[in-house]
Amino acid sequence: xxxxxxxxxxxxxxxxxxxxxxxxxxxxxxxxxxxxxxxxxxxxxxxxxxxxxxxxxxxxxxxxxxxxxxxxxxxxxxxxxxxxxxxxxxxxxxxxxxxxxxxxxxxxxxxxxxxxxxxxxxxxxxxxxxxxxxxxxxxxxxxxxxxxxxxxxxxxxxxxxxxxxxxxxxxxxxxxxxxxxxxxxxxxxxxxxxxxxxxxxxxxxxxxxxxxxxxxxxxxxxxxxxxxxxxxxxxxxxxxxxxxxxxxxxxxxxxxxxxxxxxxxxxxxxxxxxxxxxxxxxxxxxxxxxxxxxxxxxxxxxxxx
Length: 305
Known about the structure:
By secondary structure, this protein is an alpha/beta fold. The protein folds into 2 domains: 10-128, no CATH class; 136-304, Alpha/beta knot, CATH 3.40.1280.10. 30% of the residues lie in helices and 17% in strands. The chain has 10 helices and 11 strands. The strands form 2 sheets. Strands 8-7-6-10-9-11 form a 6-stranded parallel β-sheet, sandwiched between helices. α3 links the parallel β3 and β4. α6 (158-170) runs parallel beside α7 (188-194) and α6 runs parallel beside α10 (279-299). 41% of the residues are buried.
């Protein structure tokens, strides 16, 4: 991130008069140049949020203040073009001072044309590359003695995925594992629901969840499946320094082989009139119990002082 005091140059939309004053005056420059526009190939994968098939996306759009701010602050994220209103650009402040970042000042309507219809963009959109892949062994190598991983077995809804990431960061989880195929896209909808968490926590894509769980066991993790039919309430589990918490898909739950690989199954006790919880809600509750309730009980009375 550049330390320079002035903002990178920005270009107004065609037909808009050049402004010489106001909060974002230093971000306004001459007419938009052709090389700022995404290429035809980029537009095919990045227009309207870029929710293309996994592995085929070269560029995509993120939107919303928190999602864009986190992406700009993430050194692992390649950021190409920021399209924002003057107010949004002012709010981003120094985060927009990234080397090589193209900035265009736009109206809210112009930003809206870059994202899915009805998306709450808060006056800002950012054209980025997908996050580079992370190897599981590389992530494991830097874990401290106490570590909590989340494992998502075919969670496909991007809003649920994003909400889980948000809770994971809030509760101090160290990493999230997902399957390469049949998982939610890590695009604009997930980033918006995650409120920036998509760019805050390591996300490891694996080809086989079962093999990944076996690797976690080798690394000293106790693998716990969240299962509504399990006999043990989650608050009755023993606290362990390393745990991997497994969540199943919204419709089918945890697959049989994945469940059989887990060390234990636990449930969240709910009113019997409700059959089940949304997976993102269940993730938030389970994370709170594991990281706040069980940890405090394991530490003893001194932890409450």
